[in-house]
Specification:
Elements (H helix, E strand, L loop, with lengths): L8 E5 L6 H11 L3 E3 L3 E2 L13 E2 L2 H9 L3 E7 L2 E6 L8 E5 L2 H10 L4 E6 L3 H10 L4 H21 L2 E4 L3 H21 L1
Length: 189
């Protein structure tokens, strides 16, 4: 891909526990031309969570970046701030964003050509199990599941693709196929 070509932006949205993060990491490992934008957050790191899962910052530093128009999108969720820095991928790379629905709508306003894939768990029971495995409290799990119902319903209105994440390999293959189609379409333009 020529370096002057605009990168494709693929946005993964879906409720907590849908497996967006796992899928995003898998896509980056499977395709060397995929660059994952690392979001910022003011929430504390979860027990066992990778240090580079987010750029963990305090509220003041986050708000300074907001004032500098340094985010492609940002929002407050359950008392914490989350944001996607304006992306600067290496030449020849496409951009992968793993963000929430509200953030995806903001990105689509700024970058209408971005493509949204809604990732959904195969069932609420799977979602609950995944949230518990990450160490979320029962109250947090209940809040995420409740909010997740609305996120899925609203996400279907903006999503270009819906991927049911029951099996990592098949879900990742589906996303890689979508990305391949986007690249072919862009090359044909």
């Amino acid at each position: 891909m020529p370096s002057s070509a605009e990168p494709t932006i693929l946005i993964l949205i879906g409720p907590g526990g849908a497996g967006k993060g796992t899928l995003a990491r898998h896509l980056v490992e499977a395709d060397p031309r995929v660059w994952l934008s690392r979001s910022w957050t003011t929430r504390p790191r979860r027990p066992g969570e990778a240090e580079d899962a987010y750029e963990f910052v305090d509220r003041e530093r986050f708000l300074v970046r907001v004032a500098q128009d340094g985010f492609l999108e940002w929002a407050e969720f359950l008392g914490n701030l989350y944001g996607t820095p304006v992306p600067e991928p290496p030449d020849g790379h496409d951009i992968l964003l793993e963000i929430d629905l509200q953030g995806a709508v903001q990105v689509l306003d700024r970058v209408p050509g971005a493509v949204v894939a809604l990732i959904v768990p195969p069932s609420e029971a799977h979602q609950i199990e995944r949230l518990r495995r990450r160490g979320d409290t029962e109250a947090h799990v209940a809040a995420r599941v409740e909010r997740g119902r609305a996120e899925i319903e609203a996400g279907r209105t903006v999503a270009d693709h819906v991927v049911v994440n029951e099996d990592l390999e098949s879900s990742a293959a589906e996303l890689l196929s979508i990305l391949g189609g986007l690249r072919e379409s862009r090359a044909a333009d």
